[in-house]
Design the sequence.
C-alpha cells in the first residue's frame, strides 16, 4: 500500500586541480589503492540518461552520489530503483554507506528510485522540499527513514548546504558543497534557472569562486542565443568548471564544451570526479 501511494505521487508529476576518472577505468580497482577519506570530495553520477560507462544502464533521470570524509549523500534517486541499484552494484556502492538523501524536486525521474533504495537502507535522513505532498513524506517515514522538510536555505551538515526552495512553478532545491577550491553546485533539473541557482548559492555561501557546477541545466530546446547568454553569465559568475548532463540538452552541452575547453567535464551515468 505504501509503495502504491508513493508511486501514485510520482505519476502525478512526471584537468586543473581535479581528477576526472574515465569510464574505461575501473573505479573499484582505483579505490582499492586509496585510503578511506583520501579525497576531499568524490562525485559519482549513478543515474543519468547520457551513456558513459558501458557497465551501467542509462535512463531518463538523475542521481549523484557525493562522498565526503564525514558523510555520504545521494542527491536525487533517478527514475526507478532497478536501474539505480543496478548501477550502484556495478560501481560497488553499498546502499548502507548512504547517510542522507536530498531530493531536488517532485518529478518522478528524480524521486522514482527512492522506494527501492529505502528497502535496502532506511537508516537515512531524507531532505525534501516542504512543498512536497504530505503523503509523500508520510510514505517515506513508513519505510523507516527520517524526513527533514526544507523551506529556506540552510546548512544540512558540515560543508553541505541547500539553496532552500526556489522557483514559483516547479519548486526545486539544489546542493552546495564548500571545498578548498571553491563552491560545488549540484542541480537536479534547474527549473528555477541555473543562473539564478548559482547566484543564490553565492549569496548563501559568499565565495568569489564557483569551482564546479554540475547536473541538469534544463536547456533542452533553448535557443542558441539563450544558451550563449547563460554561458556568458557563467563566466561573469566565475564558474570555473562545468559538467552538464540529464536535461541540459545536446546543443547546450556542445556549446559549453566549446567555451570551457579543458574545464568542460563530459558527464553521464558512471562519471566519477575526484580531487584530493
Sequence:
Amino acid at each position: 500500500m505504501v509503495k502504491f501511494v508513493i508511486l501514485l505521487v510520482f505519476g502525478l508529476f512526471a584537468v586543473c586541480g581535479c581528477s576526472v576518472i574515465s569510464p574505461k577505468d575501473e573505479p573499484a580497482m582505483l579505490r582499492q589503492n586509496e585510503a578511506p577519506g583520501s579525497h576531499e570530495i568524490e562525485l559519482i553520477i549513478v543515474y543519468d540518461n547520457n551513456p558513459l560507462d558501458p557497465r551501467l544502464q542509462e535512463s531518463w533521470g538523475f542521481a549523484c552520489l557525493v562522498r565526503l570524509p564525514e558523510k555520504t549523500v545521494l542527491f536525487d534517486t533517478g527514475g526507478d530503483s532497478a536501474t539505480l541499484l543496478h548501477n550502484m552494484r556495478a560501481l560497488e556502492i553499498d546502499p548502507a554507506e548512504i547517510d542522507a538523501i536530498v531530493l531536488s524536486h517532485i518529478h518522478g525521474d528524480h524521486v522514482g528510485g527512492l522506494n527501492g533504495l529505502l528497502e535496502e537502507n532506511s537508516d537515512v535522513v531524507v531532505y525534501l522540499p516542504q512543498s512536497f505532498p504530505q503523503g509523500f513524506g508520510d510514505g517515506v517515514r513508513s519505510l523507516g527513514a527520517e524526513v527533514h522538510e526544507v523551506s529556506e536555505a540552510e546548512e544540512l551538515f558540515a560543508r553541505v548546504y541547500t539553496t532552500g526552495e526556489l522557483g514559483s512553478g516547479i519548486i526545486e532545491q539544489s546542493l552546495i558543497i564548500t571545498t578548498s577550491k571553491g563552491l560545488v553546485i549540484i542541480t537536479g533539473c534547474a527549473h528555477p534557472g541555473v543562473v539564478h541557482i548559482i547566484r543564490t548559492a553565492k549569496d548563501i555561501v559568499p565565495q568569489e569562486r564557483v569551482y564546479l557546477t554540475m547536473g541538469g541545466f534544463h536547456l533542452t530546446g533553448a535557443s542558441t542565443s539563450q544558451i550563449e547568454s547563460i554561458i556568458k553569465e557563467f563566466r561573469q559568475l566565475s564558474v570555473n568548471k562545468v559538467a552538464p548532463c540529464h536535461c541540459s540538452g545536446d546543443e547546450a552541452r556542445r556549446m559549453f564544451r566549446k567555451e570551457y575547453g579543458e574545464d568542460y567535464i563530459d558527464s553521464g551515468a558512471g562519471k566519477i570526479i575526484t580531487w584530493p
Notes: The chain is about 30% helix and 25% strand.
